[in-house]
């Protein structure tokens, strides 16, 4: 215990002079260099064959990259994506509350909704929304089995863009509802019990305790869905809705008989928007990872 | 001081499907009393405690806190379920500390403690923070107020959980095996906090396997087996002179 040469005796006061830090030689990674060279050469070769290939018509690509209908198409596609996702998130939130409620009628309704919208093709649903004004020419509020109180022609309300948003959004809500449910299920029941034990109401428990935790698991697949929705907007042609990016580039391609550069234009803009969405997702994930994705103390 | 016990249980039965988890439990806990519950695993200790703050609904009997029937309005011999608002209000009177801590992982220690006062009691934030820091100080953790649960040891987490329950100023604190999930060297710090509460007159019910601790702090010791209270009384009497064969068998295993 009292020995002068025990580990504690030599520790104190000598840290700065006496500790010889380990000299660390990093492991060599020759494979990485080989991979770099091979992939670099491949990349250069592919890039060269693309850029120098006259069939790609890069001059046409540049000419139409910022064409007014293309830029408007990007705007419409973004607008459809954002509004349809917003509608889907609101519906999915309602669906998940309905599914977890004590009320058997609400539970069944939510189940049927998810069953229907997941079980039928999106294209078919969009066609249906496009035909809605034909099937139901007037939207009205009336006494059940009695006279009409108030009504308007359907095509005043269900315009092509509304039909597109309804079609995309309602279909998506069914998928999001399942993603949300999985997110809430991943939380231990102890969290609800702890919140109940301090007397929190059910709504508050959902909003303040469960939702922030569920967000961690909900965000990555919802990001996937958003990107899927972005590209899914090209299906609104079924409504028919004719202002989105894909329709705009196709229209130009058909006019100038050059499909390839216009496909590249569309691809370019989809990539740009997707990149922006991914940045947003990164910040959302960081926000909701608070306290749980702790990186402190990890060896970098 | 009033004669009404803080908690009184009258003929509590609980069925989980066909499992008869509680078979007619009668028990009462007076103000300032520390009641320790011991018994083999599966004897219904947790279930009994969860019935008191309505995490479980009872199948028969009555739970009263300060004389008020919990969960129901009894009229014409029938039990009418109370609206959620009333049940939440009743739950506030009982603080619960869980074996697995159940801290909110997305909130810091302080945020865990002030969640109830702000969200439920509608306290002003500054006031809640002051109260919360005081409670964290009381459990010896005011220097870790900004840590998230994942950055604290089990013992520290459990002490924060105790502070969170205390923040609601409950009539009674319920502890369900508060040290069973802890490494042995961390048990002491949590027991010290509980001991301190006992000294300060907090009414408590404590399920524990720490028989020595129960002997030290409890005013009343209850032995449960197979859903029944087999025996109860002063800790020294019960531990040193058990009347029932089942109590003797259990004690011989754990002492
Ligand atoms: N949610 C539940 N569903 C079904 N059975 C349960 C449930 N909770 C507890 N039980 C049963 O009730 C009995 C008492 O359990 P519990 O109160 O946890 O015992 P203890 O805390 O004394 O170990 C056990 O037989 C257990 O299997
Ligand atoms: Mg238990």
What does this 3D model show about the protein?
The complex is a heterodimer of chains A (300) and B (255). Chain A is mostly helical and 300 residues long. Chain A has 13 helices and 2 strands. Chain A has helices spanning 7-11, 15-18, 30-51, 58-65, 68-100, 104-119, 122-135, 154-157, 160-185, 189-197, 202-232, 245-256, 259-288, and strands at 138-142, 148-153. Chain A has a two-stranded antiparallel sheet with strand order 1-2. The longest helix of chain A has 33 residues, at 68-100. The radius of gyration of chain A is 29 Å and the shape is flat. By secondary structure, chain B is α/β, with parallel strands linked by helices. Helices cover 36% and strands 26% of the residues of chain B. Chain B contains 9 helices and 12 strands. In chain B, the strands form 3 sheets. Chain B has a 6-stranded mixed β-sheet, sandwiched between helices. Chain B has a 4-stranded antiparallel β-sheet with strand order 2-1-4-5, covered by helices on one side. In chain B, a hairpin with a 2-residue loop joins strand 11 and strand 12. The longest helix of chain B is centred in the C-terminal third of the chain and has 16 residues, at 184-199. The N and C termini of chain B lie far apart (37 Å). The interface between A and B is medium-sized, with 24 and 34 residues. The complex binds adenosine-5'-diphosphate and magnesium ion. Chain A: It is a multi-pass membrane protein. Chain A: Residues 74-281 form the ABC transmembrane type-1 domain. Chain A: Keywords: Amino-acid transport, Membrane, Transmembrane, Transmembrane helix, Transport.
């Amino acid at each position: 215990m009292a020995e002068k040469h025990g580990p504690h005796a030599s520790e104190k006061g000598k840290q700065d002079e006496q500790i010889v830090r380990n000299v660390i030689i990093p492991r060599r990674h020759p494979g990485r260099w080989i991979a770099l060279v091979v992939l670099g050469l491949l990349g250069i070769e592919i890039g060269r064959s693309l850029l120098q290939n006259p069939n790609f018509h890069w001059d046409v690509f540049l000419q139409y990259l910022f064409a007014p209908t293309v830029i408007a198409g990007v705007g419409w596609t973004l607008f459809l994506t954002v509004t349809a996702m917003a509608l889907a998130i609101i519906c999915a939130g309602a669906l998940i509350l309905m599914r977890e409620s004590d009320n058997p009628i609400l539970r069944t309704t939510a189940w049927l909704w998810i069953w229907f919208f997941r079980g039928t093709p999106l294209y078919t649903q969009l066609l249906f929304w496009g035909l809605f004004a034909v099937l139901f020419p007037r939207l009205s509020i009336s006494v059940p089995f009695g006279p009409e109180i108030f009504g308007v022609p359907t095509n005043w309300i269900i315009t092509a863009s509304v039909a597109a948003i309804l079609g995309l959004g309602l279909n998506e809500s069914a998928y999001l509802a399942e993603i949300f449910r999985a997110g809430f299920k991943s939380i231990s029941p102890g969290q609800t019990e702890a919140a109940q034990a301090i007397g929190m109401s059910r709504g508050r428990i959902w909003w303040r305790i469960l939702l922030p935790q569920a967000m961690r698991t909900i965000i990555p697949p919802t990001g996937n869905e958003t990107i899927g929705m972005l590209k899914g907007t090209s299906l609104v042609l079924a409504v028919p809705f004719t202002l989105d990016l894909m329709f705009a580039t196709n229209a130009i391609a058909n006019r100038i008989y050059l499909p390839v550069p216009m496909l590249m234009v569309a691809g370019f803009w989809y990539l740009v928007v997707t990149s922006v969405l991914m940045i947003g997702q990164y910040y959302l994930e960081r926000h909701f990872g608070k306290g749980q994705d702790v990186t402190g103390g990890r060896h970098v | 001081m009033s004669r009404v016990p803080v908690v009184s249980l009258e003929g509590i039965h609980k069925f989980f499907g066909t499992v008869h988890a509680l078979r007619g439990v009668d028990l009462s806990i007076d103000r300032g009393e520390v009641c320790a519950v011991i018994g083999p695993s599966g004897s219904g200790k947790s279930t009994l405690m969860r019935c008191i703050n309505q995490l479980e609904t009872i199948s028969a009997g009555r739970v009263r806190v300060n004389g008020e029937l919990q969960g129901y309005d009894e009229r014409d011999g029938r039990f009418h379920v109370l609206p959620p608002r009333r049940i939440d209000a009743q739950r506030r009177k009982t603080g619960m500390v869980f074996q697995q801590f159940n801290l909110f992982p997305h909130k810091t220690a302080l945020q865990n403690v002030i969640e109830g006062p702000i969200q439920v009691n509608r306290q002003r934030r500054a006031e809640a923070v002051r109260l919360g820091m005081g409670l964290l100080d009381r459990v010896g953790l005011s220097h870790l107020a900004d840590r998230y649960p994942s950055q604290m040891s089990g013992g520290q987490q459990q002490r924060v959980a105790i502070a969170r329950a205390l923040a609601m100023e409950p009539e009674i604190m319920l502890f369900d095996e508060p040290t069973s999930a802890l490494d042995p060297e961390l048990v002491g710090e949590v027991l010290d906090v509980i001991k301190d509460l006992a000294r300060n007159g907090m009414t408590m019910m404590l399920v524990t396997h720490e028989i020595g601790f129960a002997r030290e702090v409890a005013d009343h010791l209850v032995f449960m087996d197979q859903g029944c209270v087999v025996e109860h009384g002063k800790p020294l009497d019960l531990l040193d002179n058990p009347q029932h064969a089942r109590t003797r068998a259990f004690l011989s295993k754990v002492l």
